[in-house]
Design goal:
Blueprint: E1 3-6, E2 17-20, E3 29-30, E4 45-51, H1 62-72, E5 73-84, H2 86-94, H3 129-137, H4 153-163, E6 166-171, E7 176-182
Parallel strand pairs: 1-2, 1-4, 2-3, 4-5
Antiparallel strand pairs: 5-7, 6-7
């Protein structure tokens, strides 16, 4: 099975083809995905995983990159896409659920909880302000680590559906938009 970890950065996965624009340890294929086509034959990939990647490409390239993923995927192959959930981020802003008492980083999702004794949010916050801002901007650790795209469920679903993906499913998560689909 050929499995592609698209935009792997330093989060390379054993048994996968780790593709990134940067020459990093564990990256198997160095390729900027905005330079289409991808370096794979038609219908040659069994599975694609893309985590924290789509937001780093210009929004005008989203459809072209996802269509290129469709081209290289075998019939019945699956793709998982994970990116910041901008709809959730806007909801947290409107509902005043952003507070410093929520950890910016945690080992487990259930550890992202507000302090019930916090005077500012009364324990109702869901996200740390720094993490919230990073969802819109990226961390800026290198020239590729800036966000050029904001993605919500409807936007991504419409593109995937228009390309021809099937079985498009949203997975629950508090910060990320995680969707799976099939060719």
């Amino acid at each position: 099975m050929k499995k592609l970890n698209l935009g792997s950065n330093k989060k390379t996965m054993e048994g996968w083809i780790n593709l990134d624009a940067q020459d990093l340890e564990g990256v198997d294929v160095i390729h900027d995905v905005t330079e289409l086509p991808l370096p794979f034959d038609d219908e040659s990939i069994d599975e694609i995983y893309s985590s924290e990647f789509l937001e780093h490409i210009d929004f005008k390239m989203t459809r072209a990159v996802l269509a290129e993923c469709y081209r290289v995927m075998k019939e019945g192959a699956t793709m998982t896409v994970s990116c910041p959930d901008i709809e959730k981020m806007c909801e947290y802003y409107v509902n005043k659920q952003i507070c410093e008492c929520v950890p910016q980083k945690a080992a487990r999702m259930e550890d992202f909880k507000a302090d019930p004794n916090c005077e500012k949010c009364g324990g109702k916050a869901i996200i740390n302000p720094t993490r919230w801002r990073l969802a819109f901007t990226g961390a800026g650790k290198n020239k590729y680590d800036w966000h050029k795209n904001v993605i919500d469920y409807d936007y991504l679903w419409d593109i995937l559906d228009d390309i021809g993906f099937k079985n498009i499913i949203k997975k629950p998560n508090i910060y990320k938009l995680i969707m799976t689909c099939r060719k």
